[in-house]
Amino acid sequence: MKTFKQLYNEGKMDLELLKLYNKAMRVMPGSPAQKKIIDQINKRMIKLGMKPSMMQQEDGHTAVSKVRADHKKEKEQNKLRRDRELDQARTQDTARKNRTN
Prior knowledge:
0% strand
């Protein structure tokens, strides 16, 4: 497979591919619209004899996705901790009421 630089130097670089790259950069990252554009880019690259882009294969391995996963995990842990605290407070209230009756 030829690299981008080799194709560009040979004059085979496609203007349509550059337009697709610019279009993909303008839309929301990770959105369905961007994924459709990336599919078009991959098809165009294969047609030009290049390796398809790795952009879609990176899902779940980017720094942003790792941080999001950490936040989700932390949110679940906080929810469990708050539930335990509420249960403990309810148990104490019930015990206090039972002592006074």
